[in-house]
């Protein structure tokens, strides 16, 4: 298990102040599956560190606009992470943990994006990309937070090009095309080379319309606002939807398979296909990379 060592007492309990992080400030971003070593301790009692205190640690999620999700259009998601307390060897994993702290501090291993024993009705992949925090509270109600972001760090903004126009923004995702057009470098170069080749062979079409790629840090497109399954294969920045057969800059029905072939043969995609209702919300071309 790979551990990133933070400064001792990165997560602390103070009897004199609240250390809640302002939501607008930058915070650490951790990839799903990574582990982070933190420490929890009690400070501030007369005479210094107490010999003991009752400590409760809980994994939580900020109910704010984050990763392109409009908070007012969604239910607040459950946190994606679990943690182990009192041991750095891994597990058992908790979502809430209480202990009568006898030592000066206790190690806390954050297991990012891998919530344990979650109800079968909810898939933890839905929560990737959220702003979360561990909250530690001592007896008396004094609390401190360690805020962090769960998401992939190899997904980048794909700007509009002469070859394409961005489409597909929704109210659920900030009502802007700035949040649904993010990809890995491999996938971004792939769709660019595909578009260049297709448009060169079809000069009467001046550009294409690219719909959903990925959110800024990956994760679920919560289109319905209820974290229901949708766009599973758009969570990792390796897929793109292209408009067909109607609408501005749509690829004609008769040319859809040609574009799909270009995705694979020119763009190096793992596969491409025309997706149709009811399997898809609407007809479109889908291309996906490894």
* Structural shape: elongated
Report the count of strand segments. Answer: 17
Determine Rg (CA atoms, Å): 23 Å
State the low-pLDDT regions, or none: 1-26, 118-122
Q: What is the CATH C level class of the largest domain, in words?
A: Mainly Beta
How far is the first residue's CA from the last residue's CA? 25 Å
The SSE order reads: EEEEEEEEEEEEEHEEHEE
User: How many discrete structural domains?
Assistant: 2
User: Count of helices?
Assistant: 2
- What structural class is derived from the secondary structure elements? mainly beta
CATH arch. level architecture of the largest domain = Sandwich
The whole-number mean of residue pLDDT values reads 82
Please outline the major beta sheet.
5 strands, mixed
Describe the structure.
- This protein is mostly beta strands.
- The protein is built from two helices and 17 strands.
- It has helices at 185-201, 256-265; strands at residues 3-5, 13-14, 29-30, 35-43, 53-61, 82-85, 96-101, 105-111, 131-138, 142-150, 156-157, 164-166, 182-183, 208-210, 239-243, 271-275, 284-288.
- The strands form five sheets. Strands 1, 2, 4, 6 and 8 form a five-stranded mixed sheet that branches.
- A hairpin with a 3-residue loop joins strand 9 (131-138) and strand 10 (142-150).
- Helix 1 crosses helix 2.
Looking at this protein, list some descriptive labels.
290 residues; mainly beta; Immunoglobulin-like; Muramoyl-pentapeptide Carboxypeptidase, domain 2; five-stranded mixed β-sheet; 2 helices; 17 strands; 29% strand; elongated
């Amino acid at each position: 298990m790979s551990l990133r060592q933070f400064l001792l007492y990165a997560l602390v309990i103070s009897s004199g102040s609240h250390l809640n992080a302002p939501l607008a400030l930058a915070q650490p971003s951790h990839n799903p599956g990574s582990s982070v070593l933190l420490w929890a301790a009690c400070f501030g009692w007369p005479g210094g560190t107490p010999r003991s205190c009752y400590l409760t640690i809980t994994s939580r999620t900020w109910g704010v606009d984050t990763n392109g999700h409009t908070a007012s259009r969604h239910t607040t998601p459950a946190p994606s992470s679990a943690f182990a307390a009192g041991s750095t060897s891994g597990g058992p994993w908790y979502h809430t943990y209480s202990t009568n702290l006898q030592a000066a501090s206790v190690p806390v291993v954050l297991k990012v994006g891998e919530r344990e024993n979650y109800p079968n009705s909810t898939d933890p992949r839905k929560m990737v990309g959220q702003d979360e925090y561990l909250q530690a509270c001592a007896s008396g109600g004094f609390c401190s937070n360690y805020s962090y972001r769960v998401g992939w760090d190899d997904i980048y903004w794909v700007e509009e090009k002469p070859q394409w126009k961005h489409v597909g923004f929704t109210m659920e995702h900030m009502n802007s095309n700035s949040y649904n057009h993010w990809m890995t470098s491999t996938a971004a170069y792939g769709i660019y080379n595909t578009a260049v080749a297709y448009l060169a062979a079809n000069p009467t079409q001046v550009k294409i319309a690219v719909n959903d790629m990925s959110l800024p840090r990956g994760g679920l497109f919560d289109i319905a606002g209820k974290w229901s399954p949708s766009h599973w294969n758009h969570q990792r920045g390796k897929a793109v939807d292209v408009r067909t057969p109607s609408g501005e800059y749509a690829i004609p029905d008769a040319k859809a398979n040609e574009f799909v072939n270009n995705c694979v043969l020119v763009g190096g995609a793992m596969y491409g296909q025309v997706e149709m209702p009811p399997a898809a919300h609407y007809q479109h071309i889908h291309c996906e990379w490894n």
